[in-house]
């Protein structure tokens, strides 16, 4: 027997439900109609370069509203107008100061602030490892940057500051001086350092850059006129002599000693050693187990000697190294592999020389390294 049902009563829809449904329909229609346009995701948009050193890279996005927005500008850089001279202040030449930083030293920052080169022409670039020490260094660096860029007098503020975090783990767990200089740690340590330098260089070198000053984070004392003094020689690569102050127990007073042994002139002995090495082996300087008998600039210093005296070099260190930007633009970088049995800064000097750029040293012009 069929049963007859009474009238069905529909529950009244709330205004909130109607609003949500309408919004969902609009979203679906926008997605379907807009999927054929050239719009980009938020993550793609976020990668667009906004830094003044970089050309605008935000892609042209069509408008779905019928209007046509202005396309991004075409940037033109005439590198023939970028001067690189022995008078960089007079010619308003931009300096890029690059520092790989595993630890923060207050003396480094204080010395940087005392440089007399116009700060509005200086861009600072840092690369910091992703580990506990790197995090601590970043925190301290950030404090000093904020203090300088926000609260210091205008003349002390730098043109711009760029900080990178390494996308690879450092090979050494400790940055203590004794651990860093162990012979068995040199190949992995310096290969990692070369990668860090290259990442920093290729990210920050702008079309208006005239000079690149490589300055280690543990260089805490230089003449205030460091940039002008080095650039005055108008050499493609030039390095001062790096020393270290310490307390001499025998003399009962403060003294100084050579520190950077990577500034050298090659020797027949070293060349013979290299000829007998495997393809991936590297020569190291300053180790008793590997006597190269190279002529080291560290021992060329003459007390009271002419600070402008020049010597040609075959290898350089990176504690304080001024490079014409054209040397890097020509392709000279820091090999993280055995390059003619050299690596990192010494390999860079070799690569630059193969490109026609000669390295120069100043044995009587000194900068000072932190003493742990």
Automatic annotation (TrEMBL):
It is found in: Golgi apparatus membrane. GO terms for biological process: cell wall mannoprotein biosynthetic process; protein N-linked glycosylation. It is a single-pass type II membrane protein. Its main location: Golgi. Pfam families: Anp1. Residues 51-73 are annotated as: Disordered. GO terms for cellular component: mannan polymerase complex. Keywords: Golgi apparatus, Membrane, Signal-anchor, Transmembrane, Transmembrane helix. Signal peptide: none annotated. One of its GO terms (molecular function) is alpha-1,6-mannosyltransferase activity. It comes from the Eukaryota. Belongs to the ANP1/MMN9/VAN1 family. This is Glycosyltransferase family 62 protein. It comes from Schizothecium vesticola.
């Amino acid at each position: 027997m069929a049963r007859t049902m009474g009238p069905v009563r529909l529950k009244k829809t709330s205004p909130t439900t109607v609003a949500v449904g309408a919004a969902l329909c609009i979203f679906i229609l926008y997605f379907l109609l807009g999927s054929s346009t050239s719009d980009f995701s938020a993550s793609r948009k976020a990668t667009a370069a906004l830094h003044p050193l970089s050309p605008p890279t935000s892609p042209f996005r069509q408008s779905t509203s019928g209007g046509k927005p202005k396309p991004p500008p075409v940037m033109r850089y005439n590198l023939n107008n970028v001067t690189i001279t022995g008078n960089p202040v007079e010619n308003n030449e931009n300096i890029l100061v690059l520092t790989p930083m595993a630890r923060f030293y207050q003396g480094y920052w204080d010395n940087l602030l005392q440089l007399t080169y116009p700060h509005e022409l200086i861009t600072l670039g840092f690369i910091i490892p992703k580990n506990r020490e790197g995090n601590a260094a970043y925190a301290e660096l950030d404090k000093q940057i904020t203090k300088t860029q926000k609260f210091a007098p205008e003349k002390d503020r730098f043109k711009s500051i760029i900080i990178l975090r390494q996308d690879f783990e450092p090979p050494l767990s400790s940055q203590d001086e004794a651990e860093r200089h162990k012979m068995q740690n040199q190949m992995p340590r310096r290969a990692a350092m070369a990668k860090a330098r290259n990442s920093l260089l290729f990210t920050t070198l702008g079309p208006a850059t005239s000079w690149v000053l490589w300055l280690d984070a543990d260089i805490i004392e230089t003449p205030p006129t460091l940039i002008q003094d080095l650039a005055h020689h108008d050499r493609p690569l030039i390095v001062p002599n790096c020393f270290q102050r310490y307390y001499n127990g025998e003399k009962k007073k403060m003294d100084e000693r050579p520190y950077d042994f990577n500034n050298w002139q090659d020797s027949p002995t070293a060349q013979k050693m290299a000829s007998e090495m495997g393809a991936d082996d590297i020569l190291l300087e300053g180790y008793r187990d590997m006597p190269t008998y190279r002529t080291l600039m560290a021992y060329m210093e003459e007390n009271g000697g002419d600070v402008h005296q020049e010597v040609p070099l075959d290898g350089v260190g990176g504690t304080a190294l001024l490079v014409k930007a054209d040397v890097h633009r020509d392709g000279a970088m820091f090999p993280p592999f055995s390059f003619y049995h050299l690596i990192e800064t010494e390999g860079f000097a070799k690569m630059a020389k193969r490109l026609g750029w000669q390295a120069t040293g100043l044995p009587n012009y000194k900068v000072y390294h932190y003493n742990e």
